[in-house]
Amino acid sequence: MNAYPEQKPTIHRVEELDFSAQYCAADYWRFRFEEMVEIIRGKIFKMAPAPSSNHQRVQNKLNYRLNQALEQGDCEIFPAPFDVYLRRSGETFAEAQNIVQPDICVVCDAEKIKREGCLGAPDLVVEILSPGTRRKDLTVKKDLYEEFGVPELWVVSVPERLLLRFDLQGGSYRQSTFVEGQTVSSTRFQNLEIVLEEVFADIKEA
Q1: Cβ-count burial of 33 within 10 angstroms (0-12 exposed, 13-18 middle, 19+ buried)?
Q2: What is the band of 7 on the pLDDT scale with cuts at 50, 70, 90?
Q3: What is the mean pLDDT of residues 108-118?
Q4: How far is CA 162 from the centre of its chain?
């Protein structure tokens, strides 16, 4: 773990956090509680509890297809839990105020992969919406990925059986919508195509 100048006590319970305060990576490394949190623009955001079985089925399908398509290249695929640190110019690693855990991320620059996670924007991020985090994923996190230059973002809605693809063009995302029955092609990776009917094939209705 990276050292930082001012040694502070370990935080063992999420109740010890001040949700109105500003946090950074140096603070994040002191967390020793079971609950998963993200830091976005210095603010703490709780993550959803254990994902649903349908969420996991879709994540497994997408992770498998990504590995199939990219196994011959230099890219690595990291499913959650895996920390992505997005730092601003002039910030040290320990000072980074944006630490998120995408459901899946693809990283093609080996220099970005550190022991703690990915330091810098991944080449592709996949977020699978959960009821408790849907609003955050579609607004706060999407805007963060856009700001820090993630070239391609996929947001999957399991109940609606659709995938939103966001492509970075001129610093802003352009959205494309794909529904079950269509094939999603990546703008970043030539060999990557996903048949959505296969991704949602094992979904169980409530």
Answers
A1: middle
A2: low
A3: 97
A4: 18
| Mean of all residue pLDDT scores within the chain | 93
Longest dimension (CA), the chain: 54
pLDDT score of 133: 85
Residue 24 in tokens = 């950074």
